[in-house]
Amino acid sequence: MQAIVSTRGLSKRYGSSYSVENIDLLVEEGEIYGFLGPNGAGKSTTLKMILGLAQPTEGSVTVFGKELAKHRRLILSQTGSLIESPSYYGHLTGLENMRVVQRLRNVPGSHVREALKIVRLEQQQNKKVSQYSLGMKQRLGIAMALLASPKLLVLDEPTNGLDPAGIGEIRELIKSLPQRLGMTVLISSHLLSEIEQIATSVGIIHQGKMLFQGKLDRLRNESHPTIAIKTSRNPMAHSLLAAQGLTPILQDGFLRLSHLTDAQVARINRELLAADIDVLRIVEHKKSLESLFLELTGKERSL
Ligand SMILES: Nc1ncnc2c1ncn2[C@@H]1O[C@H](COP(=O)(O)OP(=O)(O)OP(=O)(O)O)[C@@H](O)[C@H]1O
Asked: Name one GO molecular function term (predicted).
């Protein structure tokens, strides 16, 4: 698969400290890449460097296979972005605002109607933007970013400040873009729950460093499930398992074990029964992505 965005050793230093340190980010064609991290982690700074809005202290950015430093104009002509809140004229209507951007970007007028249709603002296009809700303003910002039919769309926390209904709308809109318009999307958020619902790949950044990058499924597999076994005689079962070199933890009426294969679980079950211990429950507990994310960003450990 073709790399749409890749960075090498990308770093940004403000004063004596690094806000972004040695980031190798990789976004492949047709992906929705969720760039995830708590507030102040370095997401905006990274996205700004990818868009040529901030100068890296070290490292390089390649977009569409071309180095940003050398092909900035070409790359940006094929990239749409929404960084921080969208800029618009409140006293003009949505349509008039779109026309301003259309002229600035020198794209055909037909794109305006198309973009307004995609973000479902057609009905409100003649309303002044000062009378728009926050969600409508965000959608207008996305419509502006879509105007030039970009191959890459970069969105920095596009659902910030929206209510759940507004978040849902933007989410569905973004989700539809790769298939509908053949776009690749790079979107940042501090909410795992949000990224989890739309992204195909994630990059997790914390204190300027990338802690994990890859498919969401791989992140899920990083979590080793725990097997909890409830028996009729837990203390005796505990001794039996410990004698076999296992390290069960007796907690809340269950013996908890981790890193077990299916074959080991089956063997334990057989042995408990053979020792005349009834097995009442065998339950698998998977770590939620949320707890994995907190563990990663809380402990700052590298995967
Ligand atoms: N122009 C600047 N001058 C000095 N420090 C800056 C500047 N821009 C960002 N920083 C610092 O860089 C760090 C990362 O900020 P950044 O805005 O990239 O984080 P973020 O992950 O986007 O967080 P948020 O979601 O809160 O915007 C922060 O500590 C911030 O204070």
From this structure: ATP hydrolysis activity
35, 36, 43: residue to mutate for ligand 1 pocket, most atoms within 8 A of CB: 43
Q: What pLDDT, in 10s, does the model give residues 273-302?
A: 999 999 999 999 877 777 777 777 774 443
Radius of gyration of the chain measured on its C-alpha atoms: 25
Give the whole-angstrom CA distance, residue 40 versus residue 27.
22
Q: Half-sphere exposure of residue 165, counting CA atoms within 13 Å on the CB side? A: 4
Q: Which amino acid is residue 29, in one-letter code?
A: E
**CA–CA separation, 50 vs 185, rounded Å?**
13
Domain boundaries, the chain: 3-216, 226-285
Q: Are 8 and 45 in contact (CB under 8 A)?
A: no
pLDDT band, very low/low/confident/very high, at 303 (cuts 50, 70, 90): very low
Q: How many CB atoms lie within 10 A of CB 259?
A: 11
Q: What is the pLDDT of residue 223?
A: 67
Ligand 1 centre distance from Cα of residue 44 (Å): 7
What are 167's two structure tokens?
């978040």
State the Cα–Cα distance between residues 174 and 14, nearest whole angstrom: 32
Cβ atoms of 231 and 272 closer than 8 Å = yes
Q: pTM (2 decimals)?
A: 0.80
Specify the 3-state DSSP secondary structure of 260: coil
Question: Does residue 16 have its Cβ closer than 6 Å to ligand 1?
Answer: no
Number of H helices, E strands in the chain: 11, 15
Q: Measure the CA–CA gap between 23 and 48, rounded to whole angstroms.
A: 13
How long is the chain? 303
207 Cα–ligand 1 center, Å: 10
Q: Which residue minimizes the CA distance to atom 16 of ligand 1?
A: 42
Q: Which fold has domain 3-216?
A: Rossmann fold (3.40.50)
